[in-house]
User: Fold this.
Amino acid sequence: MPEGPEIHAQAVRLQFLKGERPRLVSPYLPELERLQGKRVKEVGARGKAFLITFEGNRTLYAHMQLYGRWVFGKPGQVDKTNRQMRLSLGTESQEARLYSATDIEILSTLQQHPYLSKLGPDLLDPGVGLPELKAQLLDRRFSGRRLAGLLLDQSFWAGPGNYLRSEILFCAGLTPETRPRDLSSDQQDQLARIAQGLARRSLKTKGLTNHPKLIQKAKKDGQTRRYYRHWVFNRLGRPCWICQSPIRKEEWGGRRLYRCLECAGGGELEMQFEDVE
Assistant:
């Protein structure tokens, strides 16, 4: 499933719709006809959902679920895929086609939607700052839970998934068992800053979370993107960027998590997020 940075990156690509009156097609949503001829006012993402707001304050909601995929191209272009097209939005020059995702609705209000109403602050929302993220760490609903599960809970912080969970824990120098209430105020600040910084870096770099200087060196050494993309995620058996010990793979909550057992992690010592500030 794509995580917050991938969803927001696709929302950026959908910006070509803003100000346009797109041609709308969906074999599964006949009520889409209500939006034909309406101008798009805003295009964005929240959590794992896309929100396209039209004149008249109607919002087209589409959740990617497990297998949703946007394909961008020219109007009328035939895509080589066995997937079912669920939605198409096109202008005279461009078209975006959504495949496989079945959770598509037209909303008149967002506050009562069962998914949107439960989301925590989005790590990639420009209006969300560190105080909002830290407030979640202090909230009784979350403060006593282990970070291994908490970082995948979209009602806590919206956006993180499997790879961001491993990356956040490593860069903050924290174990999966750690609970927010076990942290000092400074550690909570650092955790929130690292989570937001990694999400922003991934969005800016199309999925890279490792430090730019380490990536540059790895490229010079002839390493592949798979090798240098992350600090720990999907690097089983490869050397830790900090201490050179082999990265281990574990299962937490039924999903894989990568970590270094020999050092405290703390990739924060090597990165100051100067590339995203």
